[in-house]
Amino acid sequence: MPLTAPEQLEIMKRGCDELLVEAEMLKKIERSVKTGTPLRAKLGLDPTRPDIHIGHTVVLNKLRQFQDLGHTVIFLIGDFTSLIGDPSGRNDTRPPLEREQILENAKTYHAQASKVLDPTKTEIRYNSEWSDPLGAAGMIKLAAKYTVARMMEREDFTQRFKKGVPISIHEFLYPLMQGYDSVALKADIELGGTDQKFNLLMGRSLQTQYGQEEQCILTMPLLVGLDGVEKMSKSKNNYIGVTDAPAEMFGKVMSISDESMWTYYELLSFKPMTEIAPMKAKCAAKAMNPRDAKVALALEITARFHSQSDADAALAAFEARKTGAAPENMPEVTIHCAEDSMLLTQIVKQADLAASTSDAGRLIDGRGLKVDGVAIEDRKLLLAKGKSYVIQAGKRKFVRVTLR
């Protein structure tokens, strides 16, 4: 039996930060139920990097709920808006990207999003479809629909202006173009993170001016990154990619703090809160080791984006590394050296275990580099040609190196 409008609304609201405007949303759902016409739910992502991270899946999971309720989901790839760069949450101008790089990054976005969304029920669109044809004249007409005073109400723009940090004119175009996406797609609701609220509201404003019914907006909480401080972000390199290898994904989840773990549970786990809350209480009462809860989370997330067997293997490899044992499967590198031996720091750099020989030296100073399980203390250590060595950098990086 189809769900009623109030029942659908409760599912949509679950876990969200804000739903604007709730009364309007209920009317949209009631009309959808009455007419059998699905709502059009939109989510836009800019392909600024080639991979989607699990922070994005917080809102993708919510979008999947819309699909399961029978509504139309539009996964919008911002190949045009990426040329501008989203100023949301920025304290400086985002470096511009070339279209060729954007299109290259976008190639796998659909496949990655399909790890969460049902691809048979997802409408894939690129905003260059309607943004490119606008041209200069159309852009001028669009820009005339909003004032500088209203644009400066954005907190990030206000703070940058007060601090004397430059704001480029093209940055004002970003929220306008995102709002115009909603006009072009006739969206009923747009989803995004809490940092997107200004951009999402722009869609409502422009739809009114184009004679359309205003979209509702639903914001989801932002997932904190691996650093435990800033939001998960590709540009801040504090993220877990949905295409990360199982062992890497598992290890990254295990690296988050015990405090952050519960936010990850609430936003990413499919476990009901009736299971999560008692587990959290047990950890607080020291009746359960937080590490065990984190292992369960890492297993769940790794299995979701790979398989249960991959997750189990990742756990086994993680446990082996904790005891100092090398994993069974590790990258193998052959390095050719002209002499009978080679400096370990040079080997570590060439094996991509460190960015430079200086970084390799610092690993040694911090006792973070091992050769065949033995911690190295000598920066000038030479390894003999014609042999193979298992080199470990930090807790998770292992490479079998053969010197020839």
N-to-C CA distance? 69 Å
Q: Helicity, in percent?
A: 40-55%
Cα-atom radius of gyration = 25 Å
Largest sheet: 6 strands, mixed
Question: Which strand order does the major sheet show?
Answer: 1-6-5-2-3-4
Number of helices: 19
**Average predicted local confidence, pLDDT:** 87
* Structural category: alpha/beta
Q: Give me the count of strands.
A: 13
Can you tell me the overall shape?
Answer: globular
Poorly predicted sequence stretches spanning 5 or more consecutive residues: none
> What percent strand?
5-15%
Description of the molecule:
There is one protein chain. This protein starts with a helix and ends with a strand. It has 19 helices and 13 strands. It is α/β, with parallel strands linked by helices. Helix 16 packs across helix 17 (308-322). A 6-stranded mixed sheet has the order 1-6-5-2-3-4, sandwiched between helices. The protein has a 5-stranded mixed sheet with strand order 7-13-12-9-10.
